[in-house]
Amino acid sequence: MDFDFLLIQKMKMGDEQAIDAFVKKYYPSIMKYCRLHIHDYGYAEDTAQETFEQFFRTLNQYKHYGKALNYLYVIAANKCKNFYSKKRELIMEEFPQQLDYGMTDLEEWIDVHSALNTLPQELQEIAVLFFFQQQKQKEIAKILGIGLPLVKYRVRRAKELLAAYLGEEALL
Fold it and tell me: With 0-12 CB in 10 A as exposed, 13-18 as middle and 19+ as buried, what is 126?
């Protein structure tokens, strides 16, 4: 039996330790996802927390089909879209003090985020899930509710556009 299934069953029965274990297991991935979409740390953190709040509010209706993380990504994606649909003005007050994306310096961080921002929205979503969250294409298809061939096309297209923007050696 799958560990997440057991954890979710315990959470549904009100087990606080199970809730803590669930959040500790998935919060870093969801926070990273939100940071890649929302460049302000505070707003990204709020969005990650709202993702878990929504998950727990609807926990009794949740049906576990294998990967709770995928469901959390769906909620987080909607929260990130809602954030931008409110047309808030984002001011990047500070750059991350620690570059948590495996990048070696601030210039590289800025270049990658600039490149991501040049992509169309549907390619940005794919790029974040594929390159930064290391999701498999099959999982991306489930998360986004689109077909695997479309995911493969978008990954290839994102690679092409990012390589053109960053320089061929960056992605090849």
Answer: buried
Q: What is the pLDDT of residues 139-164, one digit of tens each?
A: 888 888 888 889 999 999 988 888 88
Write 16-19 long-range contacts (CB < 8 A, 24+): 19/56
112 and 85 in a single domain? The answer is no
- What global pTM score does this model have? 0.59
Asked if 11 and 24 touch (Cβ cutoff 8 Å), the reply is no
Which domain range does residue 161 map to?
103-172
- In whole angstroms, give the CA distance from residue 24 to residue 73: 15
Buried b (16+ CB within 10 A) or exposed e, 53-72: eebeeeeeeeeeeeebbbbb
Rounded mean pLDDT of 87-102?
44
Which two tokens mark 21? 């274990």
